[in-house]
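Q: How do we represent a protein-ligand complex in a form that can be generated token by token?
A: Start from the inputs.
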Amino acid sequence: MNDPVPDPVRIERVGSIAVVTIDNPPVNALSQAVRRELLAAFSGFAADATISGIVITGAGRDFVAGADIREMDMPLLDPSLPDVLAVMETCPQPIVAAIRGNALGGGLELALACDRRIASSGATVGLPEVKLGIIPGAGGTQRLPRLVGTARAIALIAAGRRIGAAEAASLGVVDAVAEGDVLAAARAEAGRAGKRRLSQLPVPSGDPAQVEKAGTDAMRSARGVAAVARAVEMVRLAAATPFAEAVQTERATFLALRDSAEAKALRHLFFAERNAQKVPGIAGAKARPLARAAVIGAGTMGSGIAVALADAGLPVAVVERDAAAATLGRQRVREIYDRIVAGGRLSGGAADERFARIGFGDDWSEISGADLVIEAVFEEMDIKLATFHRLDEIAKPGAVLATNTSYLDVDKIAAATRRPQDVVGLHFFSPANVMRLLEIVRGRATGPDVLATGFALARRIGKVAVVAGVCDGFIGNRIYSAYRRHMEYLVEDGAWPEDVDRAIEAYGFAMGPFAVSDLSGLDIGWVTRKRRHATRDPRERYVAIADRLCEKGRFGRKTGRGWYLYPEGARKPVPDPEVRAVIEAESARHGITRRAVADDEIQRRALAAMVNEAAKILAEGIAQRASDIDLVLANGYGFPSVRGGPMFTADARGLADVLGDVEAMYRFAGFGSEPAALLVDLARAGSTFSKWDAGRVK
Ligand code: T1G
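Then emit the structure tokens for the protein with (2S,3S)-3-hydroxy-2-methylbutanoyl-COA bound:
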């Protein structure tokens, strides 16, 4: 918790206008100290006839980024924000919010309790509370619909959308966008405006069909977050319930959600995302300039990466082995943009503009001007080494040379160049222009400024970046492989693939491991298993079912059959008796009498496998923090965010309990599934991964 700032609220008089400045770095969060001082200030103003108008604003970059999220794991601290807003409403003087930067959550609610809102052109406003598993708790669900109508308010609040100043003005959320000094504009407005308490305005009548549609759309993209349904309910309440009564209901709902397991999990991920950027050894390192990029290989990953870079305004040179492959890459990228436009997420013109930033060809000299080169060629070490050897000849001095490998040894790849300090792993997830996760793989020689450049790139392209050390599969794929392995053990023991997928989806994953495997293609895993065959320890249990399926050409959706059948036109994959026969034959071949496997066992085993492998990864220093691992699984592997990630879930359940499952797993699986020493130690000490994090990484 940041040390409380003395006097986080400043008051100045400009003539008869009182200017209130919230100054609580880094983002002017509405901490208890801020609320207390605001309450005192506005109580004073209400009784001060010499003040004709009031302006409220934030110091530094932002207006107010919301309530202080750190306080939410603590008992309630008075005064509450609704208390402050109620006193503001008693002020006879017009109050004008001067919004610079972010006005989010309680910050926008504070502005909505003002009589006018003036924004600077770079301002961003929104009520993103559902992203934290809560709803606005200070009148946002009641005041916003009075400005924009019920349907729009549902769309904004249930999606937690943040909007720019122009859109906010067009919707009426702000009254004006000041081109020049927003504070001066607000002072002028405070001098002429009258009172306009949103709480006393009616909700504009809207088309019930639109309201219905907004609610349905909101629920469709709720992703299991309970707060979304509550938010829709609250906003709909506004049109039918007196303000004073509705804000009570809103507050009670907010408080209940605040203490929910979901909200705690999402808060954990919020701070995990911020902490992941704090990497020992790079504090103070300056990121290298990033004006031009190049991508080698325009397959599925390369084309997605090129789109992610172009979307962030970067000119990109995509280079392939020959002209035909380059043309294919161009088509792939064009199709990506066409799909986005067809989905209404981008205008045709904007898509063309971005597409035009990407060049395609087989002339490698195109790489020589790039500040960053990302290699996305086939996942074969020899091909990677040859590519980096050639890259070393062409790329300009100081260029960052990145590999998108998802498993291979980044140190070995770096050693293929004379500048290993410039080499880093940038592991994107498919589709690379959509998935939020970016694993930044730190090689032995990777320079701190190169790592800093990786983080700067992640911020620029809107990715969640997590640093990983070099090992087979880094953080995510290594944990996912352990989880997959145990799910296959359960299939050989008695479960069917559809049982496992059903249990895992019921746990909250968007998709079970066998459906995921069919989507990404069984052939990729087959190549990896073959690569590992020579080094696999014969004492480790090996399930060959997937190999049998691949030998039959069952590579998943792309071949119409994998773990499931994909009949033409069928909406859902279908279990296939042929797969059952393969499974039964493998169980028999290993002398296994198939048994019933309950959903609960599948879910506990999944978590046990993930947590156990993760504890090994932590102990080896491949991941810095347990919370980094939660970020990786939640943003790259579909682990339900409302559970906070495997490590957070394990802490919530109690490590002794999880260790019990790991020990059971070891009894079933034997060699290779031994309980991780770190997990055993923490469980025996009655400790947690979050305490381990707190003790280790600042
Ligand atoms: N409370 C406490 N700390 C916060 C904070 C907040 N609301 N927002 C940011 N921080 C810290 C963050 O942890 C980091 O700390 C530092 O500020 C910089 O943040 C009643 C209840 C504003 C867009 O959801 O989205 O209001 O790591 O690295 O990338 O209805 O922060 O340096 O120690 O993210 O420039 C609703 C959350 C709250 C907005 C800036 N508000 N914040 O992004 O910096 S719920 C939000 C953000 C609410 C009411 C309810 C972003 C940002 P440290 P940063 P950034």
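Residues 26-27, 29, 65-70, 81, 102, 104-106, 109, 128-129, 132, 134, 136-138, 140, 271, 274 surround (2S,3S)-3-hydroxy-2-methylbutanoyl-COA (CB under 6 Å). The CA atoms of residues 190 and 663 lie 67 Å apart.
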